[in-house]
Q: What sequence folds into this?
């Protein structure tokens, strides 16, 4: 069921294929006047047919805004978004609605309790896109609905139920079925499994992976949980405060991340294994967490690297925002010092920090076990 | 809904009123218009269940016959208010900011008008009849329907499943029809019951003042008014029509409360951030509700 | 042990210095007694120990915590069993006595810190208020102590943070504020119910470090509840695994992780995203857990257990002792050689 990444064609697509999704230099600004904040800056993202891209970001990274921009719920202030070669970011109302009726792109929301109408039956929910499209007779709609439900592992017994009568995992599957009914080519999933428990989470992720194979879908999975992405993503793109800081093949990004923030995410992910290349203290500035502005705000350090305030390796060069540069095959990273910092990190010892912390690392779990 | 005794009583009262509205004239034991000079101000008896008034007419029959006029015109007012108010209330959420602004200002203006004077003015303009007077009341009830329906619609229009429908290419009409309408109906029902009570009071007041009334046709307010003229001779007399009005209005309000309670149980619960959950005990499989009880 | 009502609030006379929390055979019913959501749960927390409670939603871990805090939701009640805080029996306390225990004996932090703070009052003032009420400090002293506590929980520029309202602080900082409030009266035990669930992973790592530091500095014992097995194994000395209202296994973390003795624990280890970044098969546990309060004969996991035998479905399954403070509620605990995760 899971092909090894090297063999998967999706990880390194043929040059002749056109990308399924092309996000080019997109800026998104939310709010008006003096409250306007730039949520996304110069975001580039390409998704090829049959590929699963994991988009990783924490609070304030702009990942949900990016998802909404791709499906047209917010308009980019700059840049372009193309799907299958068609520019969708500049469509006006009527054309946008027509494009949506085509059903090429679908969005899976995080919480199915909110994204499904509690008064409608599963049959009505899944059929909605088809009904809106119009021109399909009832029997065909029925067949397509059953087909979509079968794709997510639900059968006809679910048809007459309402969202309140089924479990959380089943609800999310209904949401996926609704998206599949219009035969999309691109699925954007915004934290599709965060509200589910571990076992159901894996089930739904496996389901997405299978759908990619059986239906030829491209999928963007947005998540804050790196290790669940490790199970299905071909590529990982890391978003930090509105900028892509690293974008590369999943297996390689996980083994040897090129950006210190990616490495920090991996070092902080709770684990029982102790085979991480770095420990969190090697990748953090000493002291407790930065007096971080509230999520969504971009620090006013005009023009500097977005990660510089938190980066222990920031140098004079980091006063200028680094561009995404190629660091390997299909791999780009936005860091001036991406070749030097690993050596510096290895040398960092646990310095004696602010009085808040004990000098002895009595609580260090990795060492004790 | 039927479980509470107050609601059952309210429905019972309203059923009787409805019966009287339709069949009041036929059910009346006496002819409400027959004047009997020899039997003025009599108390309750076998012949006259509630006694007679200042012209010897049977009070019970007059009240029963008067039910139709009072109730029907109150319903007329509510109906006009509903159509003029609720439809724009739903539509305005989807029709853009300028339309919303304009209609809101019209509603504000209408809400400032006192209905009695407006009714007098309208009847003066288009003719003195109770239907015309209640048209005025209906117009003035519309802003209330508008406000409440608009608020409810706004609430439901923010829902994520509405956004999901828009992503499927839904038109505004589709969204209203499929997702919003059935959810604001409970609010409309509550408002209708409440404003029907208000409209009934308005009818009673207008007929009390003699607006739109063609004597000797009986109306509840008219009976109350003439009873007050003869208070010294029959001090208990005004209590009867007053009690009838109060009972009906009370029943309508109880019904409105029952609608509201029932609707409240099934309305949208805003589950805002992803990890917050309902304080429910029953957890379905595969759910992770971190703030759950178990 | 009786709480002396004449003594000032912070002094809760707690007899035992060694065992901070003992729960024995706890049974909690929900829905007004209609269903038993917690069945025969026993656990111990020693001074300075960090114990993790892990399990799915509906497994009973949160109800157990709430029973220990005396804040069961309406309709829930403790049917049987005892809970003692360092020897003090918590089941028969009056409201006044609970007020003394909260803060000085027990502290608690929950999942969404913003909802536990007044959104229009500066966070420092809210902490100072707690200090004034509970410790009877003077206003100036309480403000100073609040700033000290903010520094102790790792907030940078504590004097600046003192004056900020919750909306101006990030989730991680708010959770630190909540921890400061919870430890302000120097309790013996801190109960953290999904305290890091809603935090970013980088901030979660810092809060975990903070809890470890507090244990090292103050000997604070922590009861850490989470559905996330990885965090629990990272932070806790001992793990207590809940399933369908029961404790199915409890023991030292490294033993549980390397050699689980209950099939459910092994299943949890397999499905949990324990920081494994290699491309792997995502595992699922087939079937569904029983409904809350379901009455089942025999082992409650038998329906989904790959190793179940006929004896598993009859009678009452008692915990099997397995060595140093390790036990598992499985008939085959000593027979099965369940593989765990390789920790090193």
A:
């Amino acid at each position: 069921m899971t092909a090894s990444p090297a063999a998967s064609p999706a990880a390194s697509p043929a040059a002749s294929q056109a990308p399924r999704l092309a996000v080019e230099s997109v800026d998104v600004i939310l709010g008006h006047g003096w409250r306007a904040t730039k949520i996304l800056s110069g975001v580039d993202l390409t998704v090829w047919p049959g590929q699963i891209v994991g988009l990783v970001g924490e609070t304030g990274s702009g990942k949900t805004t990016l998802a909404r921009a791709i499906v047209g719920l917010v308009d980019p202030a700059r840049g372009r978004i193309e799907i299958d070669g068609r520019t969708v970011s500049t469509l006006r109302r009527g054309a946008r609605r027509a494009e949506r009726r085509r059903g090429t792109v679908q969005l899976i929301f995080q919480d199915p309790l909110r994204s499904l109408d509690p008064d409608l039956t599963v049959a009505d929910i899944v059929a909605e896109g088809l009904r809106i499209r119009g021109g399909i007779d009832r029997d065909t709609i029925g067949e397509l609905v059953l087909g979509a439900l079968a794709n997510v592992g639900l059968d006809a017994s679910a048809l007459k139920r309402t969202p309140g009568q089924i479990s959380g995992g089943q609800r999310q599957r209904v949401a996926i079925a609704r998206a599949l009914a219009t035969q999309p080519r691109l699925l954007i999933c915004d934290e599709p499994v965060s509200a589910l428990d571990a076992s159901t989470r894996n089930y739904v992720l496996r389901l997405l992976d299978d759908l990619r194979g059986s239906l030829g879908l491209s999928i963007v999975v947005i998540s804050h949980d790196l290790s669940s992405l490790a199970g299905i993503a071909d590529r990982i793109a890391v978003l930090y405060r509105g900028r892509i800081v690293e974008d590369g093949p999943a297996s390689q990004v996980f083994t040897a991340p090129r950006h210190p923030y990616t490495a920090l995410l991996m070092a902080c992910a709770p684990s029982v294994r102790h085979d991480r290349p770095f420990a969190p203290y090697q990748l953090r500035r000493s002291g407790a967490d930065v007096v971080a502005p509230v999520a969504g705000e971009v620090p006013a350090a005009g023009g500097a690297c977005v990660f510089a305030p938190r980066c222990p390796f920031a140098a004079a060069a980091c006063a200028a925002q680094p561009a995404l540069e190629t660091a390997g095959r299909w791999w780009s990273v936005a860091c001036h010092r991406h070749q030097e910092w690993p050596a510096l990190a290895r040398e960092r010892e646990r310095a004696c920090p602010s009085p808040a912390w004990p000098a002895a690392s009595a609580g260090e779990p990795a060492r004790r076990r | 809904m039927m479980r509470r005794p107050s609601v059952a009583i309210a429905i019972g009262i309203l059923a009787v009123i409805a019966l009287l509205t339709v069949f009041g004239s036929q059910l009346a034991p006496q002819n409400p218009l027959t004047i009997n000079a020899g039997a003025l101000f009599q108390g309750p008896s076998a012949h006259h269940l509630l006694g007679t008034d200042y012209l010897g007419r049977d009070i019970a029959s007059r009240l029963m016959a008067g039910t139709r006029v009072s109730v029907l015109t109150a319903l007329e007012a509510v109906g006009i208010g509903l159509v003029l108010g609720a439809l724009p209330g739903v539509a305005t959420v989807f029709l853009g900011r300028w339309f919303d602004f304009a209609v809101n200002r019209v509603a504000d203006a209408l809400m400032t008008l006192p209905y009695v004077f407006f009714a007098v003015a309208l009847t003066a303009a288009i003719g003195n009849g109770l239907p015309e007077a209640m048209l005025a009341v209906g117009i003035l009830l519309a802003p209330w329907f508008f406000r409440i329906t608009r608020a409810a619609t706004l609430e439901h229009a923010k829902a994520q499943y509405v956004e999901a429908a828009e992503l499927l290419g839904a038109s505004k009409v589709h969204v209203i029809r499929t997702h919003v309408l059935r959810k604001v109906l409970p609010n409309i029902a509550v408002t209708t019951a409440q404003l029907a009570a208000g409209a009934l009071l308005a009818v009673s007041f207008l007929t009390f003042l003699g607006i739109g009334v063609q004597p000797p046709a009986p109306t509840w307010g008219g009976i109350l008014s003439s009873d007050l003229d003869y208070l010294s001779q029959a001090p208990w007399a005004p209590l009867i029509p007053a009690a009838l009005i109060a009972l009906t209005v009370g029943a309508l309000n109880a019904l409105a409360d029952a609608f509201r309670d029932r609707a409240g149980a099934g309305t949208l619960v805003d589950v805002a951030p992803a990890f917050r959950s309902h304080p429910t005990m029953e957890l379905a499989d595969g759910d992770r509700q971190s703030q759950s009880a178990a | 042990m009786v709480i002396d009502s004449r003594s000032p609030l912070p002094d809760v006379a707690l007899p035992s210095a060694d065992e901070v929390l003992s729960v024995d055979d706890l049974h909690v019913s929900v829905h007004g007694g209609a269903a038993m959501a917690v069945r025969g749960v026993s656990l111990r927390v020693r001074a300075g120990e960090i114990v993790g409670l892990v399990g799915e939603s509906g497994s009973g871990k949160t109800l157990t915590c709430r029973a220990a805090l005396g804040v069961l939701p309406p309709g829930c009640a403790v049917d049987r069993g005892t809970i003692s805080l360092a020897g003090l029996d918590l089941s028969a306390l009056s409201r006044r006595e609970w007020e003394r225990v909260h803060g000085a004996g027990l502290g608690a932090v929950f999942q969404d810190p913003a909802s536990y703070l007044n959104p229009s009052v500066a966070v420092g003032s809210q902490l100072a208020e707690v200090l004034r009420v509970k410790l009877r400090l003077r206003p100036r002293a309480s403000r100073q102590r609040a700033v000290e506590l903010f520094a102790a929980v790792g907030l940078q520029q504590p004097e600046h943070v003192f004056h900020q309202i919750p909306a101006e602080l990030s989730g991680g900082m708010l959770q630190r504020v909540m921890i400061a409030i919870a430890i302000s009266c120097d309790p013996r035990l801190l109960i953290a119910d999904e305290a890091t669930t809603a935090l970013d992973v980088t901030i979660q790592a810092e809060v975990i470090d903070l809890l470890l530091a507090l244990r090292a500095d103050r000997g604070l014992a922590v009861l850490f509840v989470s559905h996330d097995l990885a965090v629990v194994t990272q932070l806790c000395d001992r793990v207590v695994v809940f399933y369908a209202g029961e404790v199915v296994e409890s023991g030292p973390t490294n033993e549980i992780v390397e050699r689980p003795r209950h099939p459910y624990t092994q299943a949890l280890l397999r499905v949990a995203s324990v920081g494994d970044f290699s491309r792997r098969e995502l595992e699922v546990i087939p079937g569904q857990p029983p409904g809350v309060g379901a009455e089942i004969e025999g082992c409650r996991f038998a329906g989904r257990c790959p190793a179940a035998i006929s004896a598993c479905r009859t009678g009452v399954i008692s915990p099997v002792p397995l060595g140093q403070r390790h036990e598992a509620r499985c008939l085959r605990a000593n027979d099965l050689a369940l593989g765990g995760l390789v920790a090193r």
Remarks:
- DSSP finds 13 helices and twelve strands in chain A.
- Chain A touches chain C through 61 residues (CB under 8 Å).
- The radius of gyration of chain A is 22 Å.
